[in-house]
Amino acid sequence: MRILLRSSLLITALLSALAVADEQSVKRSFEERFPGAEVASVKKEALTGLYEVYAVGQLFYVDEKVSYAIQGNLINAQTRQSLSAERMKVLSEISFNKLPFEQAIKIVRGNGKRQLAVFEDPDCPFCKQLERELQKVNDVTIHVFLYPIEQLHPGATLKSRKIWCAPDRAKAWLASVHDNTVPEGSGECDTPITNLAKLARTHRITGTPTLIFANNERVAGAIPAARIEQLLGNTTP
Questions:
Q1: How confident is the model over 124-157, as pLDDT tens digits?
Q2: Predicted model pTM
Q3: Of these four, 12, 93, 130, 165, which has the most CB atoms within 10 Å of its CB?
Q4: What angle do helix axes 169-179 and 156-165 make, rounded to 10 degrees?
Q5: Do residues 235 and 136 touch, judged by C-beta distance below 8 A?
């Protein structure tokens, strides 16, 4: 019995290793065929036998050699359910505790016990509106992730770099969004802006502001202070 159990465990381990190897091979092949499309995850789709590839915030279905790729909505014809939509909901979910807080501008108000993360563009009018609402919220730590959307706001990337490179980032950020003051300097320092843009794309954050609360709830747009208070109340300090 022990020999059979050991054999079963060995076979399971080998099959698991082969599956991982196949997924790694698919990842490499996909990135070779689509340069610049960094793959976040690969998973074999049980119903079709295809590999599900999650890259640049989108789902693709490919064969094991990545000879063909399908980009679209995978639907269960019997239930009419969108399997792709269900997977996208899981894959694009943001875990608050896994956010790279060392790449954020930290603003503490009051005791700072409650937590909030915001992806913002310094030239986004809705971000400026949100910041006016945030001024009414106390006892909160706000983590601002700079996410300039250059195609909408030309020059926002340079402004974001200057804010990050400023001696007091929190002060520079608040002066920028409240008074339209641009920090002095060239903006030539090591910034997380490129990494944050990649993170945003991975999680399908396409607009600013986007708020993420400590319970992983995600809200887009300049919501009023009362709504922020309500959502903060549902989080764990």
A1: 999 999 999 999 999 999 999 999 999 999 999 9
A2: 0.72
A3: 130
A4: 140
A5: no
